[in-house]
Specification:
The complex is a heterodimer of chains A (144) and B (528). Chain A is of the alpha+beta class and 144 residues long. Helix content of chain A is 26%, strand content 27%. Chain A is globular, with a radius of gyration of 16 Å. Classes of the chains: A alpha+beta (144), B alpha+beta (528). Chain A: It comes from Hypoxylon rubiginosum.
């Protein structure tokens, strides 16, 4: 089995999992960059989650300022997320993660000075997918 | 100052009492849900009676003190001799090897239920563990009001999210308040000192004046109060209540200096509460629902104390939190639209170790080759599993320490000791050990698999195990203790290389597993 096949199979199973288990929509499997059509180092998935997954602490403060009353329901607008599917037994280095970040277009939905983020989807053979956010650099931490 | 501090717990306790009575309702609400779904089916221990997909026919035990039991044994033996029970395993389930996912997939719903109920093998590929995607979809479409574990988790997460928003809001308010206080400059110049009030009458005047002036002087005034004698302070408060108790602003002002301590206290309970930890613990485990409503409780407690502190908006906070919560919990039940029949897309997926255990150790599974449609022999499957456990898969140069063999040795070891062993990727370990199964209790142990090269052959090779740092062990152990699991290090003694033709049973005989429990020891907590 060629390695490219292997990588695409992982991406396909993550996409499947996002669609049916986590109810994501507008899912797309990308093997080439949407900006300049250059090949990506790894296939990436873009999709729209059903609810907001990440909120920067600065944005949270802004939201609280614009909704000063506790009765207000704070609106949630999900944004398109980028997903990097990998397998649990793979060995990844910072360099390989950096090359993935370099191949991604800057996030349009966020403030311009924010670093890029990717949702790391780690697949296990028993079909468990574990998702972690990964940022291209240091970000202000969120309170847990 | 001491006076004012004492009054804080008193008032907050008074306000906590109604909030606790409110709290109890969601708790009972959460508990009653699984109970109401319970009587629908048979009890759990009946569904999950068999610990493995095979049945055994043991002879009854013989008690020398009770001669009747001898007849019982003889009867059972004769009856099994005359009409032997059917050969076990009675049903050999069929799974198809899926090269894409490097696993075995089972499509027959009967086999899926059987393998899940008899030993908790496999995982539904769209579910957290038990294959209940169809049930969840149907519940969502309003076909029935059954709840699946994922729903409870989602609800708990929603409650927790609201609690976090509430906490963030309160922290933001506390920061704003501190900013205002810090902006106030102590009166040191002669002009400012002369401008200070001389008598109590003056002070009262200034008090009401500064209040109208706004927050910046407000903070100053409150500090000023604290510097003065406490008796004076108290009398001022009393005077306030006597004369202008009808105006809420006055009340608010008098309680103003108390609020910083109040919020910091509530913030602390949010951060270090064991309840928050138990929510983390719940995230990826089956429902016991005991701690289900706790984050919500927490939110309520916090909401209550906020209402005490900032008087301008006392009651609405509490209601404001409670109302959306109730809405949330009822929303999924009310949305019912008739929809076309949902096709069950879900499969049961078995990882390599589970597959091989079912084929090799129990013989309850046949794995079909997707190309030829014929079942793999156990030895073919053994080689296949070893090949695909490398990344990328390799056809040649299989080693005695390939990932499949190491993991399988540990899996087989714990399974044959009666533990329900399941993959532990969500906890950052290799295997989780359940006492009876995930539906009964949470996993007790988290197993990390480590190869050990202590055989003389490896020693002469100079082979070292993969280097693990102290940080690595420490982080894993801390994660496990947050999730209330005990960390087990399972060392697998790797035998020297063997011939490729060796049968699986002979190969596995050479592996030995040693277990160690790692526990963090704290001198003041582990005193007994």
């Amino acid at each position: 089995m060629a390695e490219e096949d292997y990588v695409e199979h992982i991406a396909a199973s993550v996409l499947d999992n996002l669609r049916y288990q986590h109810d994501w929509t507008e899912l797309q499997l990308l093997t080439h960059s949407p900006v300049d059509n250059s090949p990506l180092p790894r296939p990436l998935i873009t999709g729209l989650p059903p609810r907001q997954l990440y909120l920067h602490p600065d944005d949270q403060i802004e939201m609280l300022k614009s909704h000063p009353h506790p009765e207000d329901r704070i609106p949630e607008t999900p944004v398109v997320e980028w997903v990097l599917p990998i397998h649990l037994s793979e060995k990844w280095s910072l360099r390989s993660f950096a090359s993935v970040f370099d191949s991604m277009p800057p996030q349009v939905s966020d403030a311009p000075d924010r670093v890029r983020r990717v949702l790391l989807a780690t697949v296990h053979n028993d079909s468990t997918v574990v998702y972690y956010f990964m940022h291209d650099g240091i970000v202000k931490p969120r309170q847990n | 100052m001491a006076d004012t501090l004492d009054s804080v717990p008193a008032t907050s306790n008074q306000h906590d009492v109604p909030s606790t009575t409110v709290k109890t309702t969601p708790t009972t609400h959460g508990k009653s849900k699984p109970r109401s779904s319970g009587p629908r089916g048979p009890p759990l221990h009946q569904i999950y009676a068999l610990p493995a997909p095979i049945r055994t026919f043991p002879l009854p035990s013989f008690y020398p003190s009770n001669p009747v039991s001898l007849f019982h044994v003889v009867y059972a033996w004769v009856s099994q001799f005359v009409s032997p029970p059917p050969a076990e395993p009675a049903a050999i389930h069929e799974g198809v090897w899926s090269p894409e996912t490097m696993s075995v997939q089972i499509k027959d719903p009967k086999s899926i239920r059987a393998l899940w109920e008899q030993g908790f093998f496999g995982k539904g590929n769209y579910s957290r563990s038990e294959p209940n995607w169809l049930k969840r979809e149907q519940a969502r479409k309003g076909k029935h009001s059954g709840h699946v574990a994922e729903d409870l988790t989602a609800q708990r997460r929603q409650e927790r999210k609201l609690m976090k928003w509430d906490r963030a809001r309160k922290e933001q308010e506390a920061i704003e308040r501190t900013r205002l206080q810090e902006a106030w400059v102590a009166p040191v110049g002669p002009k400012e000192l002369l401008a200070l009030p001389n008598s109590e009458e003056d002070r009262k005047l200034a008090y009401s004046n500064t209040f109208t002036n706004g927050g910046l002087l407000q903070g100053g005034e409150s500090l000023d109060l604290a510097v003065d004698a406490t008796e004076l302070n108290g009398s001022v408060l009393v005077a306030d209540e006597d004369t202008v108790s009808t105006t809420p602003q006055m009340n608010g002002h008098s309680s103003h200096p108390l609020t910083p301590t109040d919020t910091s206290k509530s913030r602390k309970t949010v951060r270090f509460s064991p309840k928050v930890e138990s929510t983390t613990f719940q995230l990826s485990d089956p429902p016991t629902s005991r701690a289900g409503a706790q984050p919500d409780e927490n939110g309520h407690v916090v909401g209550g104390s906020l209402a005490n502190g900032t008087s301008p908006l006392p009651q609405p906070t509490d209601l404001g939190i409670a109302a959306p919560l109730l809405e949330e919990s009822h929303a999924p039940e009310t949305t019912s639209e008739p929809e076309p029949v949902i096709v069950d897309r879900e499969l049961l997926q078995l990882c390599l170790e589970e597959t091989f255990y079912l084929v090799f150790a129990l013989g309850a599974l046949a794995v079909l080759d997707p190309v030829t449609g014929k079942p793999f022999t156990p030895s073919d499957l053994f080689t296949l599993c070893r090949q695909v456990s490398y990344v990328p898969p390799r056809k040649v140069d299989l080693q005695p320490d390939d990932p499949f063999l190491i993991n399988y040795a540990v899996y087989h070891h714990f399974r044959s000791l009666g533990w329900v062993t399941r993959p532990g990727i969500k906890f950052g370990v290799d295997w989780m050990l359940y006492n009876r199964g995930p539906v009964f209790s949470h996993a007790e142990f988290a197993v990390i698999v480590l190869p050990a090269y202590s055989d003389p052959w490896w020693k002469s090779e100079g082979r070292q195990p993969p280097r693990r740092s102290w940080h690595w062990l420490h982080t894993i152990n801390r994660v496990q203790s947050t999730a209330l699991k005990t960390l087990v290090l399972a060392y697998v003694e790797i035998p020297p290389p063997f011939e490729e033709q060796l049968a699986a049973a002979d190969v596995l005989q050479r592996y030995k597993v040693r277990e160690f429990i790692v526990k963090r020891w704290l001198s003041n907590r582990n005193r007994d």
